[in-house]
Write a structure and sequence with these properties.
It comes from Apatococcus fuscideae. This is AAA domain-containing protein. It holds the Pfam family AAA_31. The protein has about 290 residues and is α/β, with parallel strands linked by helices. It has eight helices and ten strands.
């Protein structure tokens, strides 16, 4: 996508941004900001240290303007990837402002306008992928069943649900699989059907994809495993402990082990708490 508009450059507030943060808004290529200093003395939060973040970008794109600007992204120079090909778009506490907007939009707005507002998040990520040639985009969401997470969920291709091996995560998984996702998928199917009948060509590029996201296995963190690295024989697949609606099961993408058995629960990070303690003690990433 190429922005041919004559958007004026906006000055960068050097009091709130690192000195090397790119000052230009998106023209032919969106700017990439250098990695900020993350020393303890740096007091500003990530979401306020940059002019561009998820909130400002999504807010702009949800207006459906022609050729909206793309946000600057931050390249992580000291990541684990050999070619340092890890970038982030900072989050923002202001995202909560979208909850009421998205909720009211989903219920009361005409189909064309709803399509633009609700589909703008996926469209924004698609354009970033085109420009920067990203292979994968990970969206880190908080534990909520509100409208914000609903739109992010339905805008994604895959869902990775990390959980702890404890009672509270079990109850959260129960609610997610028996109620929350089922409700979201019911709304999704209704809205996709409405979009197919809508003749608004301007909103067509913001339409939801025709298939809902796939739900990947639950990644169990902070669990001590035997030396075999497998779950104890007495452990049950949490997704088999309660009745799950058929349309939720339809989006399952189970893991298949070397024996051909499928499961929706797999161990991920062993003894996460201990790893965090060691990391803090060494003042280094593990």
């Amino acid at each position: 996508m190429t922005d041919e508009s004559d958007a004026e450059e906006e000055p960068v507030d050097n009091q709130k941004a690192p000195s090397q943060l790119a000052a230009k808004l998106f023209t032919a290529h969106p700017p990439i900001a250098d990695e900020p200093s993350l020393e303890p003395a740096y007091k500003e939060s990530f979401s306020t240290a940059f002019k561009d973040n998820v909130y400002t970008a999504w807010k702009l794109w949800s207006k459906g303007a022609n050729n909206p600007t793309l946000p600057a992204i931050v390249k992580i120079q000291k990541g684990r990837l050999p070619d340092n090909s890890l970038y982030i778009l900072p989050g923002s506490h202001k995202l909560i402002d979208f909850e009421n907007t998205l909720s009211l939009t989903a219920l009361n707005t005409l189909v064309g306008a709803r399509t633009v507002i609700l589909g703008s998040f996926r469209k924004l990520l698609q354009e970033l992928c085109k420009i920067h040639q990203f292979d994968l985009v990970f969206v880190d969401c908080g534990p909520s069943s509100g409208a914000l997470n609903q739109i992010i969920f339905l805008s994604s291709d895959y869902i990775i649900p990390p959980v702890y091996a404890d009672y509270f995560s079990t109850t959260s998984v129960f609610g997610l699989l028996t109620s929350v996702v089922d409700r979201w998928l019911t709304w999704y199917k209704m809205f996709v059907s409405e979009q197919a009948q809508d003749a608004d060509d301007c909103a067509s590029v913001f339409r939801f994809k025709q298939q809902p996201p796939k739900l990947l296995p639950l990644l169990v963190n902070n669990i001590k495993l035997p030396t075999t690295g497998t779950l104890p024989s007495g452990a049950s697949d949490a997704t088999k402990m309660f009745t799950i609606p058929a349309q939720v099961k339809d989006i399952f993408a189970p893991f298949t082990d070397e024996n051909g058995s499928e499961t929706m629960v797999i161990p991920f990070l062993k003894e996460l708490t201990r790893a965090n303690q060691i990391s803090m003690k060494l003042d280094a990433q593990l």
